[in-house]
Amino acid sequence: MKVNTDLAKERAKCDFNVEELTHYLDEGADQTRRRKEVENRVLSVKGILDEVPEEYLSHKDKYENAIRKAVLLFKVLKDVQNPGQTEMEKVRSSFRHTVQTAVFKDHSPFSLHTAMFIPGIVGQCDDKQREYWLKRAQNMEIIGTYAQTELSHGTFIRGLETTATYDPATEEFVLHSPKISSYKWWPGNLGHTSNYCIVMAQLYSKGKHCGIQPFMVQLRDENTHEPLPGIKLGEIGVKLGYNTVNNGFLGFEQHRIPRDRMLMKNAQVLKDGTFKAFPNNKLTYGTMVFVRVLILNVMANQLAKAVTIAIRYSAVRRQSQLKPDEPEPQILDYVTQQHKLFIALASSHAFGTVARWFWSMFDNVNKELAAGKLDNLAELHALACCLKVISSADGAAMVERCRLACGGHGYMLASNLPQIYGVVTPASTYEGENTVLLLQTARALVKAWNQAAKGGTVAPTMKYLIENKPQKPWRNDIDGIIEGFRNVAARKLATSVASIESYVKAGNSQENAWNKASVQLIAVSEAHGRVIMMSAFKTEMERNTSSLSAPVRRVLAQLVELYILYWALEKLGDLLLYTRINESDVLELQRRYEELLEKLRPNAVGLVDAFDFRDEILNSALGAYDGRVYERLMAEALKSPLNAKPVDDSFHKYLKPFMQGKL
Fold first, then answer.
1. Are residues 195 and 142 in contact, defined by beta-carbon separation less than 8 angstroms?
2. Which of 1, 197, 318, 648 shows the smallest number of beta carbons within 10 Å?
3. What is the set of active-site residues?
4. Do the Cβ atoms of 166 and 205 come closer than 8 Å?
5. 461-506: pLDDT as tens digits
6. DSSP label at residue 471
7. Angstrom distance (rounded) from CA 56 to CA 61
8. What does the DSSP assignment read for 39-50?
9. Could you give the count of Cα atoms lying within 13 Å of 488 in the half-sphere of its Cβ?
10. Nearest-angstrom CA–CA distance, 202 and 157
11. CATH number of the structural domain spanning residue 231
12. Which domain holds residue 261?
């Protein structure tokens, strides 16, 4: 492979073992080998990669092509999977497996089947149901999705309008969408792919409302794929991204399903209509928490792809002159470019590290729930909400920053940066709109405050908020900065609680007082999320890197420090207001930040090489390993159907008569 000279020189500068860092990211050399084996198997399948870029296909052709590839991909992944793993183990072991993005720029039309339908079966079916449904889903005998969001309600689950009314005479539930706003809207795979669905609906039995419950609903005939009577469904149309996911709508007209189609792990309806609830109905929402945990990892991988493209391009692209009579420098030499990109690099490591930490917590809480212990569920939910917000908002902003850092070429779909942005930006609204999720975390934080005031216990990750320690002098080291962010979160919480109390004393209801203070409350939740992200990133990185070589440990420590310094400088207003930081401290932080950019600069290409993305996975003319940006851009341009012949038919139909005044 002929490699661009500038990129080759960058790799020669790297002073750490790139492969060692790759093994660390994969959690072991064996896992790296395993990942590469899967990639080789998938990418060797004939026809699994597009010969014609999908951007030139019609909407319908894109979907049909995605279905074709999804079938090929499932078959090869089925052959290479470890049959002894549970569904949760399969998910965890695939955190660094990104080969699917080589096959789909815009995601698979089976994505919700694996991400929510199967986890929904695992988490919400009783033993008998799970034995039947899980096998069928794993073998793709049925293809499913998860339908919760409706046209008029999303994050506010209690507002859902779809009803499931139990009829004891026939031992059936009658599913109904009372109006157009009740239609399910957004579920991936729903439009034309899935024939089954887990539906969240308001349960009514014996004239009483029994809350939101999940139901397994057959949507289409298993042989003809025709919608069943009383089922109205289709695709919702073109979007910014996810256009091969086949997001759909779903309505019911008095559609009947058997009693055993209610998923009964957490609640059930007896034959006579008696509703029997189990200890905690919040367990029904476990699938949503599961997906929010995964979003952290998705953001880590997508941001790693974007920053790999942008840093490699920045090493190849030369622009302007720093000094007269000297060659144009690589744009990666500009400190402003480093400022744009190195935080994206550090953030990808932060999201990935915290995702692994949070998965362990999620796994432990799941085991506790199985044993009937619910103590840590609220803390898990609060963390899932704010960490999902931090990762999705920062991830989207930084992918866009990577695109902008590539100038006009980043606007080309051939760069793959617009598509990556289209994949990450909806995460700020799916699985809970970010502002709403911050308010959910805020409720947990205010509750913790009130519990502490009454002498009650507080979740471990919230204890710092109510310790009421005397404010210490500012320390400019990393631990001192994290402590400063703890002070910010704690004092913001105290201020928010005081505001709510003052609004109540002024005659407002508790609900109105909450609404009036809501801008303060979301700021509390964001501050708390940043404390968790910073502290977990630093602690986990230190805990897990002791066996690595000194050069790799050093460069990872630099990324941790850069991440924390960056956010200290970004949040100076909060730190100046709530801590004892002063002007000289700020100037020192700025100097250290600039020094870190300089230290990381020689290793920038090595750091993104360590992500070990194959060219097929990056799918980018700007980010290929060989750095031959201009040759690849021209090759992609020549694939346009408009370049198939020198004169397009529109010339003879429209342009020539127009220019000759004959229209």
1. yes
2. 1
3. 431
4. yes
5. 999 998 877 888 999 999 999 999 999 999 999 999 999 999 999 9
6. P
7. 10
8. HHHHHTSTTSS-
9. 28
10. 10
11. 2.40.110.10
12. 113-278
